[in-house]
Fold:
Amino acid sequence: MARQFPVPHRVRTLADCHNIEDFRTLAHRKLPFPVFHYIDGAGDDELTKGRNTAAYADVDLVPNVLAGVDEIDTSITVMGRKTDLPLILSPTALQRLFHWQGERAVARVAERHNLWFGISSLSSVSIEEVGANYAGPKLLQYYYHKDRGLNAALVERAKAANFDAIALTVDTIVSGNRERCKRTGFTTPPKFTARNFLSYATHPAWGLNFLFRERFSLPNLETHVSEGSSSAISIQDYFNSMLDRNMDWKAVEQLRQDWGGTFCLKGVMSVADAKRAADIGCNAIMVSNHGGRQLDGSRAPFDQLEEIVDAVGDRMEVICDGGVRRGTHVLKALATGATAASGGRLYLYALAAAGEAGVERAVTILKEEIERGMRLMGVTSVDQLNRDMLRRR
Structure:
């Protein structure tokens, strides 16, 4: 059922944004359609993307009252770092395509709020720059390439830049079928074609920033490959041609040893894989389906969370990644047993809508929702959330 508003609801400026869906609406206005649909799109029929958020609506919160909630503590410790909120800003690629400030804007906001922030191997700002300029907890989302020299270089660069963790992405052995990107012809860097030229032309602010600010590139990759920086390629083709389909548990163990620090697997969805990750010494897993971009028809992370927590929650940290749009979603994940919740689109829409100011507003809104939700639930710290406070419909 469509949401009904008591008054006409228009989102034209940052001040009109009061939730993550509002940022999505504003991002749609601000971006050329190939770029917007890259952020917004997912695999095949996009059923899993929708389910990632809808899953939270199938579980109700059961609040307690009269708990004395004037002072509350929203902090957690995850992957060895204490953070002010039980929320991680998941790593995402290509951010300077969405707004010229890109990863720099997200990193600044994460640092101010003391949140985990991740950059992708396909980030548009280098590992070195992020490491040198931002003091908050940082992780590198690691893609396992066919090029072994590139793989080794990513590890060494993250070590030298004092990154706090690596999160190996394990659900992109091949690319998902991203039909929106096929229809729009989205590539990195963008190619201007007869099909998409009008959309770029009618968004001149985006175009001027792209053309006249610093050259767009993927600095973590361009020392080894041209694809994505000087040679335009679709993300689907990049994954299919550049990533190693032979990656297996032996390779994961070797990477964990080579890194030697806090190590996370991103994209674990089965109990069997979660147990294997714990067995080889992973510190954390992200229960994730890549925002619905990979295997359409797969389970939502929140749907799968309980059985994974029950299987390995006493051996490693379990992060529920994807579909988060509200502070209450975070609380439901924590009550189920997650160490933290994380998401990418929740801040990417805001970045696209208004750069650093947009990300700041989005994080502040989620912070206020978490705080308000905790008070209404009658808890003063996140470790008081438990399954007794949840009922499945």
